[in-house]
Structures are given as C-alpha cells and as structure tokens.
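Notes from the 1:1 (GR / supervisor)

We went over the backlog. Supervisor wanted to see one worked example end to end before approving the batch request, so GR pasted a single chain during the call. The sequence is below; no edits were made to it. Supervisor asked that the structure be written out right there so they could see what the output format looks like.
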Amino acid sequence: MGGNSILGAAVAAALAMIAALATPAAAHPCPPAASTVSVLADLPGDAVLPCTAAPARFPAETLALQFEPDPAGPPPRYLLMNLGRFDRVAFAVEGRDGSVARSSVPMADAIATSAGPTLALPLPRASAPPARVEARIEGLSHKASLESLHLSSERPDRRPGHVGRLALIAVLIGMLAMPIVFDALFWRVLRDRFILWHAAMTACFIPLVALRSGIVNEWFALDPMAWRAATIMTFGAAIAACLLFTRHFIEADKLGARQARAMEWAAAWALAVSALQTLWPEWMVPAGLPLHGIALLPVMVLWFRVVGSALARGSRAVRFQLVGWIPLTIVFLVEISTELMPGVPAVRTLDLFYLGLVCEATVTALGVTDRFLTLRRERDSARRVAAELGDLVERDPLTGLMNRRGLAKRFPQLRAEGFSTFALLDLDRFKDVNDTFGHAVGDEVLRTVAAVLAGERQRHSVAVRMGGEEFLLFLRGERPTERAERIRRAISLRVAREVTQIDRVVTASMGMIEIPDGVPDTIGFDELYARADKLLYEAKEAGRNRSMHERLTLFAAGGTAAGAAA
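Structure output shown during the call:
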C-alpha cells in the first residue's frame, strides 16, 4: 500500500473514532431547573445550569447553579469539577430543617486530587442534611469544567480501587522512563540528534502523565493554579519535542528543507500558544472558543502533511511515527471537536490518553531502535567501503582522501543518496609556496587542507583530492553552500596555525554547483566538473580568495540551464 493510502486510512480511522466518542451522552445527570426562591440573595436572574441547550459564553463573570441532592443517598460533602481556571465559588447549603450554611472558596483553596485533573471544593455544613445546594462561580473559563460539575459525598481519590489505579499509572510512568535509558545507551554509540529529541519528548511525557492523572498530588499537594499552568506548559513542551523529534527522525533525503524549517517554527508556536494560555487565559477563550486547541490544529495538520510527504518518498522511519501517534491524535481531535460542538458534552478521554501514550512509547521506541540499527549498518557499510577504497587506485596517498577515480566510480550512488552540491576548490598561487619553501612544506600544506575538508560531517560530505592543489567537496543536507564557504575560509586559518614554516596567507578559490531536486541523473560527473571548473576560473579571474556558484534549473522539456551568482 502506498504512503497516501496508508495516510488516508489512518485519517479515516481517526474520524470514525471521533464520531463514536463524540456522540452526545450525558456524563452526569443534569440538575433540575430552579423552582424555588434562591437562597443566595444576590444570585443573578439569568442563572445558567449545566447541560442546557444554550451553554454559557466564556470567560463567565458569574454562573449560578442549583443542585437538589438525592435524599436517599449519602449527603454531599464536595463539589467536584475538572481542572480549569476560576476566581472563586460562593456556596449556600440549605438543610432539610431550613438552616443555611454559606462559604466562599477561592481557586487557591480548592483541593487538588490525584484522581485525574479534578478539583474538590468542600461544601459548608448545615445543621441538617442538605435539601438544596446553590453555587455561584465567578470567572470560570473552561466549558469542560462547567459540564463536569457535580456533587459527591467523598473525594474521588479516597474511593475504593483508587490505589490500584495509581499503581497502574506508576507502571506507565516507569514504562515511559525506560526509553530514556536506551536513548542514553544509543547516544554513546551514535551521536545523532533524533536520539536526544526522543529522550526530550519522553521526558516531557513523564510529568505530563503525572500532572494530568493527578498522581503528582500524592507526592506533594500542588496549588491548583500551578497545577493548571504546569499541565498546559508541559503539554506544549511535549508537542514541541515531538515536532523536533519527527524533524530529525525522518531520513534526511525524505524531508525537504522547507518542511524541516516549518517543523521548527511549529515547535516554537506550540510553546508560545501554551504560554499565552497559561498567562492570559481570558485572551485565549473569547466567545467560549478554546483557542489553545484551535491554535494547535495547524500544528497537527503540518505534522500529518510532513508524515504523508515522507511516506510518499519511501521513508521507513516515518511509518513508526504514524502508527505510534494515531491514538494520541484521536484523543486531541476528540477533545477539541467536542469543545467546539454546541450541545455536546466536552469529552476527556483520559484512559485513551494513557493507552495512546503506551502505544506511542512502544512503537516509537521500536522505531528509534530500528533507525539506530539502520544507521549503524550504514556506518559499518561506509567503513567497509572506505577500507575497500584505501588502495592507491582510488585514494590519494599523500592526503588520504579519495581521488578523482574513486569519486567517479561512486558518483551515481552519492547522487542517489542526496549529495547535490559540487564544490571545486583550488589553492591560490600554490606554486609560489612550493618554489619558495620547498615541496615538503607544500605537501604539509596539502595535508592540512585535506584535514580541513575531511573535518566536515562525513555522513553529509565527501572530500576528494582531484590532483595537485585542487580539491572537491560533494555535500548534502542543510545549507550546503554556507558550509562549503565556511570550510573554504577555514583553510587560511588552519594552514597559518599548523604550517608555521611559511610567512604568507594561503587562500583558496572555489566554484560551486547546486543541483536542485528534479534535475535528472543523466547529468554526469564530467559535465558537473566542467561547470564547476569554469566557475573556479571566474573566481580566479575576479581576484582569487572567493567563491562563484550557480544553481542548475530544470526546464519543462527536461533540459537544464544554470543561473550563476558570485
């Protein structure tokens, strides 16, 4: 099945799951409409009750709610609600004997439980079991918090079976910590940035689970505002780390430069909107819209676009990403879509969130292991190739670099692996160095230049001695022209530092060809060399110690031309 078919099937599955989970269903019984005179004298006349057809606009200045507890059940002691920002809740509890008890609970005094993102607000005690409970909530900013309001006779983290649930969450946190250990071991063998970003992503998931499950409150009681802020920012950091992990995890030749930059900007955007939601929630929820989630939707669209493009290009690594992230993507889509649907209770799929993390941690860890083994095989293969090219036929005996014959032999393979920038360098007035200081010093200069060229990351460049004082760099990856120019300028500094017998600055001129995507492979080594040599001659004629480069252009008919620039 092709990449587009896999992506289409994944999106269809996600939409089907959203439709099933988002079916309207009462999460708890709706409280009855107010039928008696309010016990709170200053309750507003337009009291809003949960589960009404016309939900409140957020942030709400004041919401008045009335509950009538079941007289046959245990008397309520707490008002429970999902974690969300509010200013305070004023309670009036009318006992069955007519007595009234009042209290006011600011958000800072709410009890942060360890039963999910749930706050417990203690009710005032009347002299008799309550017949009616009225609450006035000021500054509520979250639809899900309003819809989750209900009375309870006990805190949810004191119910039977809660300890077992905490144990399962602790096991999940331990499972998430294991990939970090493997990443540390992988890093010792292979210094690739995707390993670091995978460790960072997993390190964000651990506190996210601890915060969203509430288990962190078993270790130390968090202030509700701090709990909310930490949850939002950790969520944003996890998204940013995921984007950067994907950006470095996908094979270099399967990810375009623009896509790579877009992923980096999207990571910064995820952190920025999370900070806005933390610091200015009023600004992020005008007209009741959850702008934090809406602002993150383009990030998810970009992620799927990059994944789909990489699949179409035959990426092996991205398949693990797609499978691992489907459950968590469904969680996000369910939560944001139900918040946007009028009359549909906001769904908080916490158990699916845990399942999604287990799936992501398992599948992505397998993907990291597979990528590690692939890169190690590539490295071992490269070493074997280097050993095979170590003879005098394909390697320069003076500098140890590959020679022209070796490059010509490997040229089609290098082009297929994404090498697309052809930089030809020549030392300026090198004959004067040989004539003045002798060939032994000249040879030392050549070896020093070779060391500078070989110092570039070997996975993304190939250094060649073409003959005499002429060298070639064949590059791929990010900003190849900038890297080549930096290497050219580094030659003078390195030679001056290491070859102390000469009293002059050794400079180099360079001619460089860029081969964009789409240019046919029929353009061979000899043609590219001839063009680069022409540019090198122009650099010499323009005064030496400079670069000239051009970028090949593909015409519709399949031919190529070149646009030159200094």
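Supervisor's comment: Confidence is low (pLDDT under 50) at residues 13-56, 555-561.
Batch request approved.
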